[in-house]
Design a protein that fits this description.
Elements (H helix, E strand, L loop, with lengths): L2 H18 L6 H12 L15 H24 L7 H10 L5 E2 H7 L4 H14 L2 E5 L7 E5 L1 H22 L4 H24 L2 H7 L7
Antiparallel strand pairs: 1-3, 2-3
Helix pairs in contact: 3-7, 5-6
GO molecular function, one term: DNA-binding transcription factor activity
Pfam families: HTH_27
Organism: Jiulongibacter sediminis
Length: about 210
């Protein structure tokens, strides 16, 4: 066993505690600190595959934040006619008097066609949205909120606003501004890829063969 590595790991752990004074030990925070430190100096951890990359940690925490939002939203929507955040997103896309084609509403909600159609079917069945003929396209229909849909939005919007504040957590105003800028930048990067939905392009991104 290479005890020198263990000794250095212990020394780094002590340095981390001195710099950050954590109330409790969190592996993810320690790894993030190591990676940040590694940008400035070489260390034995830079090529260790057991340590998640900085990109991996960012993706992981974004995913965790979405799961936390889902966790809270289930409690908020429990006594409402809405089933999920996707339902709320669809209604919000039509609120208060917006009329959209089905494909446009699904795209605006950042959903894939199959799952988006399922949500629309559910909302139509519940009477929260309705459809009518498109005035300029005989083959298309426009979706819009019913009075029941508007009432559901008004009932839930206040609680969703409180949830948003809770998801942001203990960030101060400066941190919120910085995070918002970074999230906006990431959204601008991913949105055109999602909207094109070019499977060949997406598979090339991840070096996967296109499935026929």
């Amino acid at each position: 066993m290479k005890y020198e590595i263990l000794k250095e790991l212990i020394a780094l752990s002590e340095a981390y505690e001195l710099e950050n004074s954590p109330k409790e030990w969190r592996r993810e925070q320690f790894i993030a600190w190591l990676l940040q430190r590694g940008e400035k100096e070489e260390g034995p951890f830079k090529k260790d595959d057991t340590i998640p990359s900085q990109d991996g940690l960012i993706a992981m925490f974004i995913s965790l934040l979405f799961k936390y939002a889902q966790f809270y939203s289930k409690r908020i929507l429990k006594d409402s006619p809405l089933y999920s955040l996707d339902d709320f997103g669809m209604l919000a896309g039509l609120f208060p008097n917006i009329e959209l084609k089905k494909t446009d509403l699904i795209r605006r909600s950042i959903m894939e066609k199959s799952s988006g159609n399922e949500v629309i079917k559910r909302l139509l069945k519940q009477g929260l949205i309705a459809e009518k003929n498109h005035p300029d396209d005989g083959r298309a229909k426009l979706l819009f909120l019913t009075p029941e849909g508007k009432a559901a939005m008004q009932m839930i919007s206040g609680r969703m606003s409180l949830m948003s504040k809770h998801v942001v957590g203990n960030l101060d105003q400066k941190e919120k501004g910085a995070l918002l800028q970074m999230l906006f930048k990431l959204n601008e990067f991913h949105k055109p890829i999602f909207e094109r939905a070019d499977e060949e392009e997406i598979n090339k991104l991840f070096n996967q063969p296109v499935l026929n």
